[in-house]
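sorry for the late reply, my laptop died twice this morning and i had to redo everyting from scratch. anyway the thing you sent over, i finally got around to it. pasting the sequence first so we're on the same page, its 330 residues, then the predicted structure underneath. double check i copied it right bc i was rushing
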Amino acid sequence: MSRRRSIPWIYRWSRPIIGAIAIIGAILTGYLTITKLIGGEVVCTAGAAQAAEGCKSVLDSVYAYPLGKSGPPLSLFGFLAYISMAIFALAPLFVNKDENKGLRRQLENWTWLLLLAGGTSMAVFSAYLMYILATELQTVCYYCIGSALFSVSLLVLAIVGREWEELGQIFFTAIIVGTITIVGTLAVYANVDSPSAVAPGQRTPIPEPTTNPQPPFGWEITTTSGEAEIALAKHLNSIGAKEYGAFWCPHCFEQKQLLGKEAFKELNYVECDPNGKNPQPQACQSAGIQSFPTWEINGKLYPGVQLPEKLAELSGYQGPMNFKYTMPGR
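ok and here's the structure:
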């Protein structure tokens, strides 16, 4: 009597494991997508406060919106990818192999190729995002790292989860899909981190003052802040940046108008004129301030009005860059 060859456990359980990982990934990205679409705040409580802030800055960054801030978040595409992988993995298991043996085998063959292609694409894309996280954003995002681990796991299971007839089939599929993925990714993100990604024509020149400044407040700020301005102001505050100014200074008013009244409330503003609100002339003198406005960022002084994207560059800000205002004539 011939002895039946035992099937390795990984061949029997690979599809359910892939399906389980994909479903967990879909739940994760689904939560991120729904939260972003309804304008909610994503919970980032794991680890230290700095790590939580880094998590939020990544999920609000330009990289989290590959089609622009007006488009869907990246997590939506991740959700669709995970759902697809779950379907590819689990669909053949619902076909009775005794009654529809031919259909079951055909589905298994096709879905294994789709699992290999999908796993390769997700792993390559995740590798690019990990590179961006380490080199550009330079922070920690547990959601991103977790999704990357899921993607790599799906690819590994797609490779070792069955007995492939030809190894060349694996390498050929992986090379073709990987190349298409990285080329498409680089094309989508070609200018995403550039200030010019926001068209100048879409930004409003700030209005100039038409009256004389009244102590102690000076001119009233008439511009309203957007999400990007508020996020930038909070970031500047968190790293200890300061803006030194005087209530009567027209260039200081221009700086306030560029950021808007809501963002200005978040800033660490130092009033240098004794007649201004909450004056700190001694602090200005100790800092060596010679003109208004002057920014102090990471221990260095930057005199003059700074555009929001310049402040972002100087401070290492990595959040949304769709700033609303610019200087007249720029």
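The longest strand covers residues 242-245.
thats about all i looked at so far, will dig more tmrw
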